[in-house]
Amino acid sequence: MRTSRPARIGQYTALLAYLVFLAFPFLWLLSTAFKPPRELGSLHPTWIPKDPTLDNFRQAFDEQPLLQAALNSLIAALGAAVIAVLIATPMAYVVARRRTRLAKAVTGWVVVSQAFPFVLLIIPLFLVLKNLGLINSVPGLVLVYVVWALPFALWMLAGYVRAVPPELEEAAAVDGAGRVRTLVSVTAPLLAPGIVATGLFAFITAWNEFFFALVLLKTPEKQTLPVVLTHFIGAEGVADLGPLAAAAFLATLPSLVVFAVIQRRITGGMLTGAVKS
């Protein structure tokens, strides 16, 4: 059925309003990052800075170790994403293909575990890391991020596995391929969009995470970027707005770049026509 002209106009208007709603915080952050102090304190703020400056960026790098913090965040986020995907992929295959009570119990536990608050997990995780000697270390933080991201990664990948036609695996079994060979050579390539999407989720979650990093990392040179950003807020709660906006803008760029690079892999790779009729 063809959509009427008023309906199309309404749809495009709603889409435009939604895009403006999503873009407003980022655009205002970008504008603030380039404003001089006198414009930041103006009673009549403007979208476009009248006298744009890079002083906020220079001050941000002078005041805090942003490069080291960004490196720590990158190591933690990449490590958590890679490890979570490597563990979750074979687990998701088993959960999706074997309809046993154990698989159903695992799926139910995955859903329930997402409701656990951070505060409930931090004490046992802290004790485990203390016994392992991983307190105040980036590898310990990676381990925590893997534990936190693994349930949702498993649930997410299981949905992608169920979307793979079982006929492909049956054909591989007829040709003599075992379970492992089928997973590696047949199922895994078709799961590429799901694996990329799951890795992106784990990366962004770890990159933006604040609470675990704040509790587990005490040495300044080991802290991640979200924790370092809080240092731009003084003891009395007054924020150094210009440098804070500049640092926050730089902190959002990696997530945007990663998403822009792999977004085609997320939307591509459809299974239409994979099975011959």
Please give a structural write-up.
It is a single chain. The protein is an all-alpha fold and 277 residues long. It is 74% helix and 0% strand. The chain is built from 13 helices and no strands. Helix 3 crosses helix 13. The longest helix is centred in the N-terminal third of the chain and has 32 residues, at 66-97. The protein is globular and about 75 Å long.
List the secondary-structure elements in sequence, H or E: HHHHHHHHHHHHH
Total strands: 0
Terminal Cα separation, in Å?
A: 28 Å
Determine Rg (CA atoms, Å).
23 Å
Helix content: over 70%
- On the 0-100 scale, what is the average pLDDT? 81
Reported for the largest beta sheet, the result is: none
How much of the polypeptide forms β-strand, as a percent range? Answer: under 5%
Task: Name its key features.
disordered C terminus; globular; 13 helices; mainly alpha; 277 residues; 74% helix
Give a quick precis of the structure:
The protein has 277 residues and is mainly alpha-helical. The protein is 74% helix and 0% strand.
